[in-house]
Design a protein that fits this description.
heterodimer, A: Rossmann fold, Rossmann fold, 7-stranded mixed beta sheet, 12 helices, 40% helix, 20% strand, globular, B: alpha/beta, two-stranded antiparallel sheet, 9 helices, binds thiamine diphosphate, binds iron/sulfur cluster, binds magnesium ion
Chain lengths: 365, 250
């Protein structure tokens, strides 16, 4: 497909929704096809895409459901096309099947998840309840890369990065946002990745190769089901090793004032903004708080979190999330063996502001 | 010793193939291989197989091939075709994969007139999982999940796929039902179904009535009798829709 890579000329300031930021970033990253199925709060990714894509020679298909959207992306990327999808909630559930195939066949699939409330149809508004599903939703033990964003700038940056990482390492890659980020407007600097020195990782086909079979090339046979236990074991172990070896390059996190913190507030996504504000407020009141935020939920920055605990000598961690303990479970599994006391502030499907965190910290210190 | 002619598009390291003796899949794939050769499309064909006994064909051809999930071959082929329209995409699936778990994909691909060629093998049961009822199981037919025979009062009547797809598609689509008992006709239908995609006309679909002696628990004679005397009357063979006119390019 012929795509016009130059989408953003000069860097420009804009005031847009997160869904719009996804679309512009996908265009700027050279995404060629989107496959999607309507679900709130992701719809506007499709709405913007369908308006803009034809201007840049990009394609779109509204599929019959999310299963199909996921599998058409799998097909398109096998054919060497930079394709993606976006979904939420029950759509994320349906997409776990194609995401699993992408894990098994190491397909460079990129998907944006805008979390909504659950279980079931829940709310169409907001939550952080799709952490477990997005990080570990497949059957068996596949590998994926999950970025949890907190600002529109990050949505833009990590959409570009997400495509690159997917095509560089060939692990399915996810941008985990939420309904607030999807629908809110905020300032964003849109730029052309190449102008910033960001290489766009080239795509390549796994099937539909050039040449003549039997003369100058072999036929490609992609497979995802094995006859023997040992065959599968070899595949899973090889993928696990590869994933572990690249994890140090992938891990991203941010910490604020953890050096001397008595309490570390652990959060991800938009809640980390409230956590940073809470740190400021608490420090102003003489309470030594710090915050730690995994940007990659998978791979999880476990060594970095352990280091933050060690160097600060903090006595407590407060895990704050708009879910009933998904980041909490993930973290406990990752930092097994640490003896620091872990407290929680769980507000499933409900927003968290700095005040909530400040009050909670005061009640437990 | 006479060596049987082998289609050029067959992948020899995977032969002999893995289907049960007397299975119809091998006949369909032989006809398909010969057709790929005749149309000279081996280099740019993508063969995609479903999970079902069709998965055993994942390395059957010396064509670029991909394996999907049960019922999901249609969207994978649609994705490939939408991404690279110059490729010839052939989806290969069973009656369970196509008419049951993947039916909404099949139906919607047909409605959108997706320019893919789909071949569905109707063996009136779920072969790979040990012979359960399929949407195509005949009234009264015994399967592992209809041990007393399929009762249409409880489970409805067998799906006639080409008939419903013909209703949904525009005139540029190609819809046919073939049978492994009529090899020349099977090849002609497969050829038309591929020609229709090559010419960029529209959706192409061939259901092939096939045999499953393993799960039917039939000997050679009974197998052929079931195919010709039980299945063919219920599932009429022929072209239901063809842009190439009645009889097509013989
Ligand atoms: C989601 C899912 N459900 C169930 C299965 C189990 N399964 C594998 S093959 C098959 C039936 C295949 O029957 P059919 O499509 O008719 O093909 P056949 O084996 O008869 O050629 C089933 C149910 C699966 N692989 N995936
Ligand atoms: S179980 Fe039936 S369909 Fe499957 S390979 Fe054997 S005979 Fe063929
Ligand atoms: Mg079957």
């Amino acid at each position: 497909m012929q795509t016009n890579l130059k989408v953003i000329g000069d860097t420009k300031k804009s005031f847009v929704t997160g869904n719009e930021a996804v679309t512009w970033a996908a265009l700027a990253a050279g995404a060629e096809m989107m496959f999607g199925y309507p679900i709130t709060p992701q719809n506007e990714v499709m709405h913007y895409w369908t308006r803009l894509a034809p201007k840049y020679g990009r394609g779109f298909l509204q599929t019959e459901d999310e299963i199909s959207a996921g599998f058409t992306v799998c097909g398109a990327v096998q054919a060497g096309t930079k394709a993606f999808t976006a979904t939420a909630g029950p759509g994320n559930v349906l997409m776990q099947e194609p995401f699993g195939m992408a894990e098994a066949m190491r397909l460079p699939l990129f998907a944006v998840i805008q979390q909504r409330g659950g279980p079931s149809s829940g709310t169409v508004i907001y939550s952080q309840q799709e952490v477990t599903l997005t990080t570990y939703g497949g059957n068996g033990e596949g590998h994926r890369i999950v970025y949890s964003t907190a600002t529109h700038q990050e949505i833009y940056d990590y959409t570009i990065k997400g495509f690159n990482v997917a095509w560089k390492y060939r692990f399915p890659t996810f941008l985990l946002g939420d309904g607030y980020q999807a629908k809110m407007r905020e300032p964003l600097e849109m730029y052309d990745p190449q102008e910033r020195g960001i290489e766009i990782v080239p795509t390549y086909p796994l099937i539909g190769l050039d040449g003549h079979i039997g003369e100058n090339r072999e036929p490609q046979h992609l497979c995802n089901i094995y006859s023997l236990e040992e065959e599968l074991y070899e595949v899973v172990m090889r993928f696990a090793e590869e994933y572990e070896s690249i994890s140090p390059e992938l891990v991203e996190y941010r910490e604020e004032q953890c050096d001397d913190a008595d309490i570390i507030i652990l959060s991800h996504g938009v809640v980390s903004r409230a956590a940073d504000d809470a740190v400021k407020a608490l420090r102003a009141q003489g309470i030594k708080a710090g915050s730690f935020r995994p940007i990659t939920l998978r791979p999880f920055p476990q060594a970095q979190l352990r280091e933050a605990i060690a160097k600060s000598g903090a006595k407590k961690i407060l895990i704050a999330e708009s879910a009933y303990g998904q980041l909490d479970r993930l973290t406990k599994q990752e930092i097994y063996g640490e003896t620091i006391k872990i407290e929680n502030l769980f507000k499933p499907g409900v927003g968290i502001i700095d005040y909530d965190i400040v009050s909670k910290v005061k009640s437990i210190l | 010793m006479i060596t049987p002619a082998v289609p050029k598009s067959w992948y020899l390291p995977s032969k002999p193939h893995k289907f049960c003796p007397g299975c119809g899949h091998g006949i369909v794939l032989k006809a398909l291989g010969e057709t790929i050769d005749e149309l000279e499309i081996q280099d740019n064909t993508i063969f995609g197989c479903d999970i079902g006994c069709s998965l055993l064909s994942w390395d059957f051809f010396a064509c670029d091939s991909t394996q999907t999930h049960h019922g999901r071959t249609t969207p994978v082929m649609v994705g490939i075709k939408r991404a690279r329209p110059e490729l010839i995409t052939i989806g290969y699936m069973g009656d369970g994969g196509g008419y049951s778990i993947g039916s909404q994909h099949l139906l919607n691909a047909a409605v959108r007139n997706e320019k893919v060629t789909l071949i569905l093998v109707n063996n009136t049961n779920y072969g790979m999982t040990g012979g359960q009822m399929a949407p195509t199981t005949l009234p009264g037919q015994k399967t592992e999940t209809t041990p007393y025979g399929r009762d249409p009062e409880l489970t409805g009547y067998p799906t006639r796929g080409p008939e419903f797809l013909a209703e949904l598609t525009p005139d540029s689509a190609y819809i046919a039902r073939a049978t492994v008992s009529k090899y020349k006709q099977l090849k002609r239908f497969l050829r038309n179904a591929l020609r229709n995609q090559i010419e960029g006309n529209g959706f192409s679909f061939v259901e092939v009535l096939s045999t499953c002696p393993t799960n039917w628990r039939t000997n050679a004679q009974q197998t052929w009798r079931f195919l010709e005397d039980e299945m063919e009357p219920y599932f009429p063979v022929g072209e239901l829709k063809s842009p190439f006119g009645k009889g097509g390019d013989k």
